[in-house]
Amino acid sequence: MEDLTDVYNDIIMEHSMNSYNKKRLEKCDFCEKGHNPNCGDEIELQVKMNGDIIEDIAFSGHGCAISQASTSIMIDTLKGKDIKEAKEIIKTFIGMIKRKITDEKELDKLEEAIALKNVSNMPARVKCALLAWHTMEDMINNVSGNI
Description:
Helix content is 46%, strand content 18%. By secondary structure, the chain is of the alpha+beta class.
């Protein structure tokens, strides 16, 4: 029987190697670039809104397996959510990675993103896991008045 760590590793590998979220949207409402100068990870998020609902998100760019998987998993987690929900999920994810939120019940809202929980034990990879989430948070904060 697989343990939870193996399941989480499978999810991360699947997203880093076969990300169907890595594409360009034909039409997007908002676009934000994120960059991690420590390791060279670079992403660009494209978001299509429907009112205050995140209708679609895609990304392009390059980076390590953790940053690419985290970006793809974030997209799956936030797609279909409204801005308020997205902000709460982002805050929870950042809290989990920084070890400030450990309550399993609160972490449930992260869905598949909980697979990245153990990254908090790897200080050199924390910024990789957080890149997309901080980029999305910046975008939401920058455009909140325009939605």
